[in-house]
Amino acid sequence: MSAAIRKIVVQVDEIHTEMGRVVTPPTRRALAIAVIANPFAGEYTEDLAALITIGEELGGLLGEKCVAALNIQPEEAQSYGKAAIVGEAGELEHAAAILHPKMGASLRRAVGSGAALVPSAKKRGGLGSTIDVPLGHKDAAFVRSHFDAIEARVPDAPRAGEILVAIAVTDSGRPLPRVGGLQVHEILGKDGLR
Amino acid sequence: MIELRRVLTQVEDIHHEFGPPAATPLRRGAALAVIANPYAGRYVANILPFMTELQSLGLLLARRLLAALAVPPERVQGYGKAAIVGAAGELEHGALWHAPGGYGMREVLGWRDAAPDGVAGQPGNALAIVPSTKKVAPPGASIDVPLTHLNASYVRSHLDCIEVRVPGSPAADELVYILAMSLGPRIQERLGGLRVEQISRWDGQK
Fold first, then answer.
1. CATH number where A88 lies
2. B145 falls in which pLDDT band (50, 70, 90)?
3. Percentage of residues in chain B with pLDDT exceeding 70?
4. What does the pLDDT read at residue B119?
5. Nearest-CA distance A147 → chain B (Å)
6. Is the CB of residue A17 less than 8 Å away from at least one CB of chain B?
7. N or C end of chain B: smaller count of CB under 10 Å?
8. Per the structure, how many domains does chain A have?
9. For residues B136 and B91, is the Cβ–Cβ distance under 8 A?
10. Interchain CB contact of A23 with B (< 8 Å)
11. DSSP chain A
12. What's domain B4-198's superfamily in CATH?
């Protein structure tokens, strides 16, 4: 089953200064959001395979849109995250079906690699609900400079029978990271953690 | 001197609004600049020098938005602008955006002075006044940016609106200046009125 897409929103957020200090180069976080029909709205369905397939499709589509919006090569992506808001006629498990079984693999193809877990958030919501999409370094989850989040919102979604699906990709960490921890140059890149 | 703190671009493709899917999705977008408010926290009588400085920001945002929309300027059909002033500023600081934002965008879209009387046909592009909204608001506030057809404000199919915001901005001492463009009419427009192909006066209105 292919996603019935009503709308796609793509954003790029660049931070040039923080606390009066110039950020060089500016941090850049891309966000791609699809608003889709929830094929299982209004009823309990045991088999969620259709949503799992949709998740796989959207992981690639939205991941590629982020990379294109940043105007980078896939390998230049540094951190990623994903999230979903289920409209009122759906259940949290619908978001889980999109996000967890197959979305990660197609997203990783879109960003060249990705040994680390793709951090995620989900909730039920209504029109204009916001969700904070967590961000983590794609090759090593412990990289402290890349722990971040970006807020996603579409004013007219999700309707009761819709699901909002968001993917975030960056080519940078926080603007002025200085709380220590594992650094990018120390990444081993084998176990997804360090 | 403009202290540019943040730029956010946003592009959306609308495939349908619960009616028949359009052959071509409607693409709309906005570019939002977060800058330091040089007049935050005090009343300054003469703020016109900053309006002149903002001309470069108008051009920058218009070009960034056009790049994000990924189309040549002639594909743009509608436009609008807006400003959000942080809590330590006044509404008049938002009004500074009218001329540099509007004319920056119009210049990028092919604006020319109106044709002399008696000259028939379209004198240039971006003839219509750029519709706008402004307010003083807290970080993360949303604002509805009105959109109209760029050559004739009365074209009913293109009367539209796009809601935008920058999470976390404006801080009290910041300004958010916004430009918006659309590549077509409302996705399911069917209310008649003046049509694009009926534009005849080329006066920016009809």
1. 3.30.1330.110
2. very high
3. 96
4. 62
5. 17
6. yes
7. N
8. 1
9. yes
10. no
11. ----EEEEEEEEEEEEEETTEEEEEEEEEEEEEEEEE-TTTTS--S--HHHHHHHHHHHHHHHHHHHHHHT--GGG--EEEEEEEE-TTS-HHHHHHHHSSSHHHHHHHHTS---S---EEEEE--TT-EEEEEEEESS-TTBGGG-EEEEEE-TT---TTEEEEEEEEESS--SS--S-SB-GGG---SSS--
12. BB2672 (3.30.1330.110)
Evaluate whether ipTM surpasses 0.85.
Answer: no
- Residues A14 and A27: their CA atoms lie apart, in Å, by 5
CA distances from B101 to A8, A34, B137, B141 (A): 26, 30, 20, 20
Instruction: Tell me which residue range forms the domain holding A104.
Output: 5-186
**pTM as predicted:** 0.89
CB contact under 8 A, B68 and A14: no
A44 CB-contact burial (10 Å; exposed 0-12 / middle 13-18 / buried 19+): exposed
pLDDT tens track for A16-28 = 999 999 999 999 9
In chain B, what residues touch A12 (CB-CB under 8 Å)?
Answer: 7-10, 68
Among B residues 19-38, those touching chain A with beta carbons less than 8 Å apart: 25
Q: How far is B182 from chain A (nearest CA, A)?
A: 13
Please measure the distance between the N-terminal and C-terminal CA atoms of chain B and give it in whole angstroms. Answer: 39
* Residue A101, both tokens: 């079984």
B163-185 per-position pLDDT tens digit: 999 999 999 999 999 999 999 99
User: Which among B83, B39, B32 is positioned nearest to B60, based on CA atoms?
Assistant: B32
Under DSSP, the state recorded for B94 is H
Q: Which residue of A has its CA nearest to B68?
A: A69
* Structural domain includes residue A193: no
Is residue A171 in some structural domain?
Answer: yes
Q: Residue A132 forms beta bridges with which residues?
A: A151
Q: Provide, as residue numbers in chain A, all residues whose Cβ is less than 8 Å from the Cβ of B168.
A: 151
Domain regions of chain B by residue span: 4-198
Asked if the model's pLDDT at residue B117 lies above 80, the reply is no
Positions in chain A whose pLDDT score sits under 70: 1
